[in-house]
Amino acid sequence: MREPAGAPINAFDVARAVREARRGSQSAFAQLHRRFAPLVHGILIGRFRPALADELTQECFALAFARLAQLKEEHKFGPWIATIARRMPPATAAEVTAAEVPERASTAASPEDRAEAARVLHALAALPEAYRETLALRLVEGLGGAEIAALTGLTPESVRVNLHRGMAKLRAALGLDRARALEFGHE
């Protein structure tokens, strides 16, 4: 289970878990996985189909486990694994393309909702990386600004700016600004 959204990330606890995982503790690495999986998945979902992002999230953690000795600052596991995720090449498929529809969706979602989710993911994938990642962490993973900052190593101010600017770009990409202007008779 994932820790609750907004739960503080204690650098001391992260460093301790990294040290224990280096000594072979599977439970310590599982703790790191639980805490940082939303970060890794949020980065990957902006680049890849949902099922591939899920698969690559697991591959990213396997790679991190194998390279754990290379982490110089134990308390910076979040930014380190985020870098690994950003560098993950797809195993067998190409990055998200505009014509691609996610192959997995909630069975409770209507076809219209699934199509809208695909449209949003495609628009998200077209954004610059900084905006794409922070928006995916907020909108897809449900993380708050402070939690995004703690996981990524960004300042809270940077996260706030990225979310604000990214949301404006996402609305524009989805045509929501124009639709809103038309709704209120401003165009």
Automatic annotation (TrEMBL):
Q: Which UniProt keywords apply?
A: DNA-binding, Sigma factor, Transcription, Transcription regulation
UniProt xrefs under InterPro entries: RNA_pol_sigma-70-like, RNA_pol_sigma-70_dom, RNA_pol_sigma70_r2, RNA_pol_sigma70_r4_t2, RNA_pol_sigma_r2, RNA_pol_sigma_r3/r4-like, WH-like_DNA-bd_sf
Q: Which segments constitute the RNA polymerase sigma factor 70 region 4 type domain?
A: 119-170
Q: Which residues form the RNA polymerase sigma-70 region domain?
A: 32-87
Q: Which family does it belong to?
A: Belongs to the sigma-70 factor family. ECF subfamily.
Q: Which protein are we looking at?
A: RNA polymerase sigma factor
